[in-house]
Each structure stands twice: as C-alpha cells, then as structure tokens.
Amino acid sequence: MSYIPLPTPQIDQIASIKFSPLDDQLLLSSFDGSVLLYRCQTPGGQIVPKLMSKFHTDAAVTSSVFLPSRSTFVGLLDGTVRQIDFENMKLTSPIDGDPKTTINDTSSISQALNHLAAVPGQDSLVIASTYAGNLKYLDVRTHRPVFQHKTSKIFALDTTARYVTLGQASQLVQIYDVRKWNLPCQTRTSGLKYQITALRNFPSGEGYVLSSLDGRVSVEYYDELPEVQQLKFAFKCHRHKDKLSGTDSVYPVTTLRFHKQTNTLFTGGADGHVCLWDWQRRKRTKQFVAVDGAISHMDINHDESMLVVGTTDDLYLRARDYNVDVDSKRSMVHLRRLEGREWTKR
Known about the structure:
1 helix; Methylamine Dehydrogenase, Chain H; mainly beta; four-stranded antiparallel β-sheet
C-alpha cells in the first residue's frame, strides 16, 4: 500500500495536521492562515479525501485541537485560542480573552501557540503552550484560563487523564498533575543529549517517549520508584549508512505516534521515512517508502486504519520576523492505509 497525495491548494508551511478522535475528519492548518477540513472516506478500501470546508484567517494558524465534544479550536500567532465556526466559516472571539499582541503584530513568533491539547475525560479543557514557555489551561465553557504558568521554552507537549508533560529546552521534562496545577509534580532531565523534538504518552499512560535532533528515541516512565526507573532506555533510529564512507547520516526524529491496538510506535523523520517499532523490544518491524521531503507532522485516525504525514520546511521556526519571505519547498500532505500485517508486531 503506497501513499496518496492529499489534494491541497498552494499552502504555506504546515502548522498542524489532526484527525478527529470521533470520525475521519482531517483538519489541516498552515502559517499563511489557511484552515482546511477534509473527510477521508475509504469506500472499497481506497482513501477518497474530500474537501468539506475552507477559509482563511488574518493571523497565522499555528496549532489546532479537536475536543471529544466535536468542538474544534486553533491557536494563532497572536497568542489567542479561538473556536472554529464551520457553519459560518469564521473564528470566534478568543476563549481566553487575553491576546498578547494585536493580530497585525507579527514581528515575533515567540508568543505564538505551538501546542494545543485536550485532556482525556475533560471535554471542556484545552491545554495551550507558546514557543516562549507560557502554559495555560483554558476552560472553553467560561472562556477563562483556570491555570497559567511561565516556564522555559516548550518544544513538545502531550497529555493523559492525569498528566500534562512538557519537553523543554536543555533536555528538561516537566510533568504536571492535572489535579494539582500550581507547580510541576516532577522535573527531570531526559535521557537524550540533544534538543527534544517530540513527545508522546504510552497508550497505558504509564510513561512517554521522547525524540531528539540526533535520531534517538528515549522511553521513560512516570513512576519514580528506582525499580521502575531502571526500565527506561533509548534507541537510535532514522540513520542511514553511507556505503562509501561507512559513516551514518543522522536525521532528526520529528514526530511520534502510538498504534494503541497493537502498542506499536510510529516515528517520522527528516529523512522522509515513517518507521514502525516494537518499541518494548527495541526492534524496527517496518520502514515505509520515503516521501519527498522531511516529515514534520504525522497523525493516525480514530480507528487506527489511516496514517497522514505532512512535509514542510521548518525555516520559519528560525525566522525572527514572520513578515520576511522564506525560500522553502512546497508543503505536501500524504495519506496511507494501515491494514493487514504490515503494522502489527512480528
């Protein structure tokens, strides 16, 4: 089974690709303010994506999240979180009511919302973080933050029913208990030497995996008991040996997803490959054919039968002025069926 391209208009760098947790709706947002909603149906086993809604915002869309209540929210370059009104093709007013800048002030992306996440079992709670290290818990019913905290730069974020976990600068990991929001319940150093690129919780909620710029994944556990901490380990991935020199070309691991039914791990890399791992045995079971370009985003649909990957340049992350044009490759989105034995443990 090969990838099929998602038919998209010319879009800027991809900011977010998310499947709905309830059906096969796929939300694509980009830094040029484009918001695209697709339905990815599979009649006869073939993926047939259809564009359902499309609109454009004045401010760049930097992140997005589906809530179990079917509400959809996006984070913007101005630091606000807004709900998408698909019926009227527009965004609502900010749910936190506290924009950090005006929409026209796009001179810096430090206050842009780089992550939005839902908390399992809490339909009205959205977790939001910025590149600069601002963390907010937002109640979408009252349109008010219930918790705010300033920490160091945040590169990755994921949630369980109990924990909000941040991958930060200097390889730090902060863990917050959603029942006690005032301070992190754990602050630790990851098992990685280089910058954290992605973080994803185990399906069981017992721990998490982290990835780094130097092609490694670290497997870590929440329980602080010594006998549990002894279980953590790291493994190399997304490396290709040069036949002439015999040296490894190392690529960043950019995105992580678990297949919950089989407890296997997907890693996406800057080499364009998606790899499938029996992570507990540290064994790669499959490497998919590479897409053209570095993979920046990846997600799996609600019944775990479909994979989406996005390729986009990350030059915008290093740009101090968002208004300056950056010469980059066109962003692309690819879909792939996950079926049969190819994604199960071997």
